[in-house]
Amino acid sequence: MESKIHGIEYSYFEIKRLISVIAAKYPFINVTNIGKSAAGREIPLLSLGASGDFTLFIAGDDPSCRITTLMLFKFIVELSEKILAGQQMCGINIRKAMFGRGVAILPLLNPDGYEIALRAENGCGPMAHKISRLCGGDFSKWRANLRGVELSRNFFPNFEQRRSEERAQHISGPRFEGFSGYRPESEPETAALALFCRNKNVRQLINLSSFGQTVMYSGKPVPPPRSVKMAEVMAAVTGFTVTPPISNMDFCLGDWFTYEFNRPAISVKIGAGSVPPVSELTYWYARLRELMTLSCLF
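Above: the chain sequence. Below: its structure as tokens.
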């Protein structure tokens, strides 16, 4: 299996094989797992550079937006190639610029949901009947983990406010989207991410999701230092718009990161009105390539 990333659907098993190929080709990439999903699938993390000060890229919390997982793989492969060759990336001497800095990518925070949305009953295991009932037989719209919790909502702060809003919408338990869980960090995936961030020096968090073609920074009422400037630069190089925090309900994962660490968290939303298919990988990677490169250097 080659390390080139194609705009096709990769199963979880194929993603694991791809990670092995990347690690073999670029031995300076460190591959670990931050934990396991509800179904026991490993949650992989790829990192390079200084471990004491790095940018964390996250994708795959929303199983419907599988293109973002591929974008992160494509990014770390190109970054590694430029470092090996001593070449520029987006006009930057990347080997020199990365000195003293690190990059970590978490390409698939929700491997169970990913498999459900991609492979339908075959990705559900013994939970197939229950999951089919929760999503009305349309597995493609599944945005939660195996236990029916939408991971981006399973964080403090404002958890009780979100639960109150859900109850008003008659969302009281597990479903294909919109359920925050019964308590913050109740899910193995969110607990693993929170523990990782608390144990590591994550300088800033960049979350790729859909949709809207906007760069949203977190932090109410006062964003952490660098947040607004980062968002403005990211928007300038992509042609996206900048979206400040609108409400406490909009950007839960980033709000948690900013609340706990007082460091920048940026959500980059791609797609014009709908979730882009993986076949558009080349187009969307080209639009976000400079944004991701600059994100490592802020």
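Strands lie at 30-36, 42-49, 54-58, 88-89, 92-93, 102-106, 202-210, 214-217, 241-243, 265-270.
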